[in-house]
Amino acid sequence: MEAKNPLHIGIILDGNRRFAKRLMARPWKGHEWGAEKVKELLRWCKGTGVKYLTLYSLSEENIKSRPKEELDFLFKMFESEFRAITDKSHDAHKNKVRVKAMGRTSLLPKTLQSAIKAAEEITKNYSNYFLNIAIAYGGQQEITDAVIGIAKKIAGGILKPEQINEDLIKHSLYTNSAPYPDMIIRTGGEKRLSNFLCWQSAYSELFFVDKMWPEFTREDFLSAIEEFKSRQRRFGK
User: Which are the catalytic amino acids?
Assistant: First the structure.
């Protein structure tokens, strides 16, 4: 039987700043190049069987530690990209992509929050593809928020403790009912998940790439998919 392509891929978009530094450019130039690479990635996914894509773009820790000048640039860049989705000529509409931001988005500037809501609203009925942008995100924080939500339902009499199971937790996470990621790719040379999809990645196949995100190529992407197809997944058995 022919091996299947992954249905859901998570990618840690690492290395933008280091790539810019290597080329003696300002850090935000690396973020610009990284954003353009994401647009290329979305085109690569078409025809590969990848229906769900979750991109780790900005952690909650980044918001607390990055220089204000860099964060201001990032927030404006994100706002511009989300606003662009509200234009019906955007590829998200042609390809029927449902766009969702996942994380503690209340930490983001109000104008960015507004842009996110607009992009989510205009694409909410699409189901060909699903694009999750992890922004102001942390995997442990995601689990914490899920537990808080479940606890509130118990306190309100909506739920009984004995009704808590893996499926309930799955549907309480930011990714909601999306299938768990089949594979996770991290660029930038680091070999850790850095608080990305802690719950969902339990049986994901992991791929670590030395290239920085802006220099990641279509060949690298397809090579990872081919390697994924050659692996024997055991799911703990």
Answer: 14, 62
Among candidates 29, 31, 38, 30, which has minimal Cα distance to 11?
38
10-228, what's its fold?
Undecaprenyl pyrophosphate synthetase (3.40.1180)
pLDDT per position as a tens digit, 5-30: 999 999 999 999 898 888 888 877 88
Cα–Cα distance measured from residue 237 to residue 226, given in angstroms and rounded to the nearest whole number: 23
Give the separation between CA 57 and CA 37, rounded to whole angstroms.
12
Burial class (CB in 10 A: 0-12, 13-18, 19+), 7: middle
User: Tens digit of pLDDT for each residue in 56-110?
Assistant: 999 999 999 999 999 999 999 999 999 999 999 999 999 999 999 999 999 999 9
CB 99 within 8 A of CB 131: yes
